[in-house]
């Protein structure tokens, strides 16, 4: 019989496999819907401009305000998840963002559009980092890389299905004398509420709460999770706020911000680019917009398999950032068909970069600030989602072109490569080197 310090590997594997089968699919579905409800706005730019007079700059600002609300409430949301448990809190997040999405179908002007986007960010805050933190409570380090890859695959899958689904709903324009974009918000919001209500019957906050694990699996899996947590906790007792302001957080945030810039640019600009192809309907725009993300999903899984267990993911992360920069740049130099091909490369780059990035985060952070640290990186990094569409809208309205903004985003992906060497040095500089012990 295994001691608590060395749990039976077979029981740990069996327990983890049940988590992958029973809980991870629901989390992936929730993420797909989450990404759909935050990115579907990219398909309605021309529609809201005609219907309620939202100009390019106002649309970019409104689309970006989502990330302001998201950033402001991200850390508090993850702290509350730590207190009340993932089951209740993730369910609350999903139902509330679904209700705001439904309400978005009734906006009448620029101010209401901006307010709806801000409130959507407030309600969604904490979901993604909450799930990443949730993994640390359920899975030992050896299994979290695969869980992250599968979960992040849901993000890319969302981009694939958002286009066709949103495009099909936009084709309902005029049904009941209601604009298609209003139908889109309404139906996609209702789906969020329904799935959120179902999630409470699937999720379990702790290993001990899972009725489908045997007592032996519970004991072994819990021991493995505790062992990994103790290894990260062994660095010593330091101030929680001091750790949150550590240079590790700064470097990780900078890298994630650069990834977010190109992701947001593709998300909000791709439908407009595809719409320039002669003869495309709303549904065709949705289908064509899915192409870059189809390639991105395939590339993510190939890369995840290749790097599983790799001692250093930084070279792969660097290559992905370079690819995203090249793709974003090339999207400005040709017609819409060439731009679509270039954005295939950019999408592969940013999604592979995300796949390489997130497994580094929980390995880097002290377990005592994992929830807050992950949330802080995600919230500050996600401010790229405010900056990118706002800059795109402002430059488009001022110059008639978005090329300059895309150059800025491409340059950011290249400049941030300078931060990658520092990540390893900081990770190797254990806080235990500090002889002083600071209370929390």
Automatic annotation (TrEMBL):
<feature type="transmembrane region" description="Helical">
    <location>
        <begin position="147"/>
        <end position="169"/>
    </location>
</feature>
<feature type="transmembrane region" description="Helical">
    <location>
        <begin position="373"/>
        <end position="392"/>
    </location>
</feature>
<feature type="transmembrane region" description="Helical">
    <location>
        <begin position="404"/>
        <end position="423"/>
    </location>
</feature>
<protein>
    <submittedName>
        <fullName>MFS transporter</fullName>
    </submittedName>
</protein>
<feature type="transmembrane region" description="Helical">
    <location>
        <begin position="56"/>
        <end position="77"/>
    </location>
</feature>
<feature type="transmembrane region" description="Helical">
    <location>
        <begin position="316"/>
        <end position="334"/>
    </location>
</feature>
<dbReference type="InterPro" id="IPR020846">
    <property type="entry name" value="MFS_dom"/>
</dbReference>
<feature type="transmembrane region" description="Helical">
    <location>
        <begin position="249"/>
        <end position="271"/>
    </location>
</feature>
<dbReference type="InterPro" id="IPR036259">
    <property type="entry name" value="MFS_trans_sf"/>
</dbReference>
<feature type="transmembrane region" description="Helical">
    <location>
        <begin position="113"/>
        <end position="135"/>
    </location>
</feature>
<feature type="transmembrane region" description="Helical">
    <location>
        <begin position="89"/>
        <end position="107"/>
    </location>
</feature>
<keyword id="KW-0472">Membrane</keyword>
<keyword id="KW-1133">Transmembrane helix</keyword>
<dbReference type="Pfam" id="PF07690">
    <property type="entry name" value="MFS_1"/>
</dbReference>
<keyword id="KW-0813">Transport</keyword>
<feature type="domain" description="Major facilitator superfamily (MFS) profile">
    <location>
        <begin position="23"/>
        <end position="428"/>
    </location>
</feature>
<keyword id="KW-0812">Transmembrane</keyword>
<feature type="transmembrane region" description="Helical">
    <location>
        <begin position="283"/>
        <end position="304"/>
    </location>
</feature>
<dbReference type="InterPro" id="IPR011701">
    <property type="entry name" value="MFS"/>
</dbReference>
<feature type="transmembrane region" description="Helical">
    <location>
        <begin position="340"/>
        <end position="361"/>
    </location>
</feature>
<feature type="transmembrane region" description="Helical">
    <location>
        <begin position="19"/>
        <end position="36"/>
    </location>
</feature>
<feature type="transmembrane region" description="Helical">
    <location>
        <begin position="181"/>
        <end position="203"/>
    </location>
</feature>
């Amino acid at each position: 019989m295994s001691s608590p310090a060395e749990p039976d590997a077979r029981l740990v594997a069996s327990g983890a496999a049940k988590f992958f089968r029973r809980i991870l699919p629901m989390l992936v579905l929730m993420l797909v819907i989450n990404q759909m409800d935050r990115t579907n706005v990219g398909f309605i730019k021309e529609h809201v401009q005609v219907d309620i007079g939202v100009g390019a700059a106002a649309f970019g600002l409104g689309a970006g305000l989502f990330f302001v609300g998201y950033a402001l409430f991200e850390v508090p949301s993850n702290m509350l998840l730590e207190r009340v448990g993932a089951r209740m809190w993730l369910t609350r997040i999903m139902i509330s963002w679904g209700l705001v999405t439904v309400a978005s179908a009734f906006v009448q002007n620029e101010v209401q559009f901006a307010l709806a986007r801000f409130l959507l960010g407030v309600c969604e805050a904490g979901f993604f980092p909450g799930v990443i933190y949730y993994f640390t409570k359920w899975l030992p380090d050896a299994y979290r890389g695969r869980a992250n890859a599968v979960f992040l695959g849901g993000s890319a899958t969302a981009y694939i299905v958002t286009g066709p689904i949103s495009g099909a709903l936009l084709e309902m324009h005029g049904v009941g004398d209601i604009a298609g974009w209003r139908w889109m918000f309404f139906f996609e919001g209702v789906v969020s509420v329904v799935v959120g209500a179902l999630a409470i019957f699937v999720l379990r906050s702790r290993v001990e709460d899972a009725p489908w694990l045997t007592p032996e699996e519970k004991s072994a899996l819990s021991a493995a999770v505790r062992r990994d947590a103790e290894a990260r906790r062994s660095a010593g007792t330091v101030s929680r706020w001091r750790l949150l302001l550590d240079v590790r957080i700064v470097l990780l945030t900078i890298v994630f911000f650069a990834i977010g810039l190109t992701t947001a640019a593709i998300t909000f600009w791709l439908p407009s680019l595809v719409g320039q192809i002669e003869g495309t309907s709303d549904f065709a725009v949705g289908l064509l917009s899915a192409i870059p993300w189809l390639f991105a999903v395939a590339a993510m899984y190939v890369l995840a398999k290749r790097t599983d267990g790799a001692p250093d993911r930084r070279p792969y992360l660097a290559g992905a950032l370079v690819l995203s920069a090249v793709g974003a740049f090339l999207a400005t130099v040709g017609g819409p068909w060439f731009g679509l091909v270039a954005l295939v490369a950019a999408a592969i780059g940013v999604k592979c970069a995300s796949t390489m990035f997130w497994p580094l985060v929980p390995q880097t952070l002290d377990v005592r600030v994992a929830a807050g640290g992950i949330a802080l990186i995600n919230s500050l990094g996600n401010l790229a989602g405010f900056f990118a569409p706002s800059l795109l809208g402002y430059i488009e309205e001022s110059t008639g072109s978005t090329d300059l903004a895309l150059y800025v985003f491409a340059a950011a992906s290249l400049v941030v490569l300078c931060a990658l060497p520092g990540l390893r040095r900081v990770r190797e500089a254990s806080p235990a080197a500090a002889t002083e012990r600071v209370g929390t």
